[in-house]
């Protein structure tokens, strides 16, 4: 609230001060009172190119542009030291009226190009700040670079792939947390958990028009829906899964996480603190969109069915296979001839397990050391004896597994659903967290925002995302729906790719994948 008050005060001061500044520049004062036109005049008297106005009006970067305009205004009125510029950046509410109304500040004009009235540090500072603004504008509204960190999309997208993600495909989402350290996502460089943003000034969700919405088959980058809360020492795991594993409803007031071990014992580890992140600062994930708003999804023996029809895995996707073997696989042959990542091959006492494409599975089945091979297929009820339920909706009433899941309806904006205590676990988080309602169950009745009801109409579309590496992917089967306001963009191009198993850059460059479209 304080940030909004300061911003409103600044806007009011602009309308009060710009006419005075214009008058000192020899421009009729009335032009300072005309909305938008006063910005054009302001830009002109500061000697800036016309395209600066585009950046000044661009949401998400206009706050930085206002800082530049404030500093340049102080330059035109004779304040040209670094100390004076810092004061203008920190306190424009005081400095701008002083410059406008104090008679001692005379119009000196912008520094002419080629003249060095400013020190080298100031000149470089201006150039760097403007470059940051231009780059921020580009990555906010058009394309952003993204790196594949895990194997959940192999062999469609590989660890070491560097992608361009199109913000235009689904419409650029305006920054919701605009005050942030440039070119970072949620953590400051060289730190493990120090936030790179401040949430004292947040904007509501708003998305500009795009070319469409996510479609089945799209490789979509989105903010991890369960990433609103993070355990500092286990940032690659869901806070909510960790809480369930620890047998607790939350970990906020705890300093340790409990992990169940394979032998039935439990291990306790320190949390390192709990981090809270707004939507646009939650971890970026990339998965395949397999279900769109309004679809009904079901997984039967690993095969996805959409609205009752099978949707086969893409040719580059993988399932995990269990092997009975006579002797160990030659991992060098697996890597060189079949591009099977050596760390994916788990062997133990005559057995092996690894994720494979259909083509590789057919080839390995013919190996002389293979006695038998079967695709992983966990039946419903697999997790019934566990202390927690890792499969969405993470409720003991649902005995689903990652291979046998559903059926489940995916919510669509404007569609209503009949709510019952039985199906409420499926939609509780969407209603309460993603759509911001107060939801309670009292004496078997459902109350939303203080009103007893048995229906709910959804406010936005939801999507079902799954990794192409079906048995090596933490996806919607584990944490549920992806709201449209969490969607970042569509992966469109692999511009660089480096195999970490071959020494990284430059020896491990996968030349044939450079500048290939994401499919």
Overview of the structural elements:
The chain is α+β, with helices and mostly antiparallel strands. Among the domains are: 2-141, no CATH class; 309-375, Peptidase S8 propeptide/proteinase inhibitor I9 (Alpha-Beta Plaits); 416-457, no CATH class. The protein has helices at 2-24, 37-45, 52-57, 62-76, 82-90, 92-101, 120-141, 239-245, 331-338, 358-364, 424-434, 476-479, and strands spanning 143-147, 161-166, 219-223, 229-231, 256-260, 266-270, 274-276, 284-291, 296-300, 303-306, 309-311, 319-325, 346-348, 351-356, 370-375, 405-409, 416-418, 439-442, 445-448, 451-452, 455-457, 462-466, 482-483, 487-497, 516-517. Helix 1 runs parallel beside helix 6 (92-101), helix 4 (62-76) packs across helix 5 (82-90) and helix 5 crosses helix 6 (92-101). The two termini are 44 Å apart.
Number of helices: 12
Strands, total number = 25
Strand percentage, roughly?
A: 15-25%
Helix/strand/pairing category: alpha+beta
Q: How much helical structure, as a percent, in the residues?
A: 25-40%
> Which stretches of 5+ consecutive residues score pLDDT under 50?
none
* Ends distance: 44 Å
Estimated radius of gyration:
28 Å
Major sheet description: 8 strands, antiparallel
pLDDT averaged over residues:
90
Backbone shape: globular
């Amino acid at each position: 609230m304080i940030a909004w008050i300061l911003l409103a005060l600044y806007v009011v001061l602009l309308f009060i001060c710009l006419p005075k500044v214009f008058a000192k520049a020899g421009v009729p004062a009335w032009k300072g009172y005309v909305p938008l036109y006063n910005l054009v005049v302001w830009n002109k008297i500061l000697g800036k190119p016309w395209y600066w106005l585009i950046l000044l009006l661009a949401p998400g970067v206009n706050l930085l542009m206002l800082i530049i305009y404030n500093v340049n205004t102080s330059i035109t009125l004779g304040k040209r030291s670094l100390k004076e510029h810092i004061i203008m950046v920190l306190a424009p509410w005081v400095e701008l009226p002083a410059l406008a109304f104090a008679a001692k500040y005379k119009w000196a004009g912008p520094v002419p190009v080629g003249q060095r009235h400013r020190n080298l540090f100031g000149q470089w500072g201006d150039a760097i700040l403007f470059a940051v603004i231009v780059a921020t504008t580009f990555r906010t509204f058009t394309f952003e670079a993204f790196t594949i960190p895990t194997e959940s999309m192999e062999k469609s997208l590989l660890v070491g792939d560097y992608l361009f993600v199109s913000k235009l495909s689904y419409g650029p989402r305006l920054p919701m947390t605009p005050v942030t350290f440039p070119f970072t996502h949620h953590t400051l460089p060289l730190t493990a958990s120090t936030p790179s943003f401040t949430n004292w000034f947040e904007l509501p969700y708003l998305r500009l028009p795009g070319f469409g919405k996510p479609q089945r088959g799209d490789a979509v980058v989105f903010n991890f829906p369960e990433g609103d809360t993070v355990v500092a020492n286990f940032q690659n795991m869901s806070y909510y899964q960790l809480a369930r594993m620890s047998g607790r409803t939350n970990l906020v007031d705890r300093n340790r996480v409990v992990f169940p071990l394979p032998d039935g014992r439990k291990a306790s580890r320190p949390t390192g603190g709990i981090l809270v992140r707004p939507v646009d600062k939650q971890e970026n994930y990339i998965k395949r969109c397999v279900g769109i708003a309004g679809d009904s999804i079901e997984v039967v023996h690993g095969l996805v069915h959409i609205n009752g029809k099978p949707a086969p895995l893409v040719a580059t996707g993988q399932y995990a296979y269990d092997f009975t073997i006579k002797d160990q696989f030659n991992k060098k042959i697996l890597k060189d001839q079949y591009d099977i990542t050596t760390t994916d091959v788990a062997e133990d006492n005559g057995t092996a397990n690894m994720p494979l494409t259909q083509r590789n599975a057919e080839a390995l089945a013919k190996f002389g050391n293979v006695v038998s091979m079967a695709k992983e297929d966990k039946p419903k009820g697999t997790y019934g004896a566990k202390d927690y339920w890792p499969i969405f909706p993470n409720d003991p009433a649902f005995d689903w597994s990652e291979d046998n899941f559903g059926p489940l309806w995916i919510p669509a904006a404007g569609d209503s659903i009949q709510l019952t205590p039985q199906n409420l676990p499926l939609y509780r988080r969407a209603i309460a967290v993603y759509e911001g309602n107060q939801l309670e169950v009292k004496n078997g009745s459902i109350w939303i925002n203080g009103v007893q009801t048995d229906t709910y109409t959804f406010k936005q579309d939801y999507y079902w995302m799954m990794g192409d590496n079906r048995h090596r992917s933490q996806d919607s089967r584990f944490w549920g729906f992806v709201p449209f306001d969490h969607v970042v963009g569509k992966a469109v191009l692999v511009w660089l790719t480096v195999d970490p198993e071959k020494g990284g850059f430059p020896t491990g460059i996968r030349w044939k994948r450079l500048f290939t479209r994401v499919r």
